[in-house]
Design a protein that fits this description.
The chain is mainly β and 343 residues long. The protein has a single domain (3-342), classed as 7 Propeller (Methylamine Dehydrogenase, Chain H), CATH 2.130.10. It has no helices and 31 strands. Residues 1-19 have low confidence and may be disordered.
Length: 343
Amino acid sequence: MKIFINAFVLLVWASIHSYAQQIKIIPQETPSKASLRGLSAFSEEVAWASGTEGTVLKTVDGGASWQDISVPSETKTDFRDIEAFGSDEAIVISAGSPAKIYKTTDGGKNWKLTYLNEDEKIFFDAMDFWDAKNGIAFSDAMNGHLVIITTKDGGNTWKEIDYKNLPASPEGEGGFAASGTCLTTFGKSTVWIGLGSPASRVFKSENKGKTWNVVETPMKRPKPTGGIFSLAFSSQTYGVAVGGDYEDDTNMEQNAAITTDGGTTWKVLEENQPKGYRSVVVLVPNSDWWISAGTSGVDISKNNGVTWELLTTDGYHSASFGSSKTGWLSGSKGRIAKITFEE
């Protein structure tokens, strides 16, 4: 186990609502050079990150130090999503084949393989949980449909949903394993999945994946490198999706959309949208503020995603909040930054 202490602080400040509030983006010192796309903040003190070379990192002191608790047998595995349930328990999922899910219950000292799929076409993009027991994950389409698995026992076992209950997928349809947030759960049983070109469709289930509806969105992109990369909801009806094209990361066209009817219809933002391709969007808890991030920068919305302001041109892959005042960003080369809101 390696522990590295935070070395320096970068401040970004802005005015939020009718009173001045300082936004601090604080780079963290980590023991890794991995690309970190998986990120899960459990609280103001506890957060986990995951990425290439089997990397898993954890802080239990609010980011003052980060521990390397990587899965020792998976040095060539890319863990692109992680779900934390405290300082001791977490689940990671890999992208690519073979697909693997590991779980730890002792803070990363030991990891147990709980799912394995060796099909050469399997490629998981994201997972999420409704609660500590019930979760869901999905892979790009194989044989005309997405591959979706669920767990009812906290990730100890996983079961594939019968493809007969899924809408058909065109050849090549899939998501982007860019931040682990192109799938998101809400409440006790609702889940949405945002996909890439050619149709940039959104799948929705209100019964933990038993049945699905699907709609096309106006976030279509002309290339397979574009589409929806992340979506999040503040209620059963209100949600924000972001994306774009990762090969054209300063292009703002069709890179964000809002739904007010639970994902049945989506309206693309045509002005004051995020300043380029964005791989993640998250709601700051107990507020109407949202954060989006991508390789060309980080933005904040102060009005439920309707308009956006650029905070920094420093690029990140993912974001996650542990409270209404504290969150984290993760990116390439082992970079992690802490976000705080202070009056």
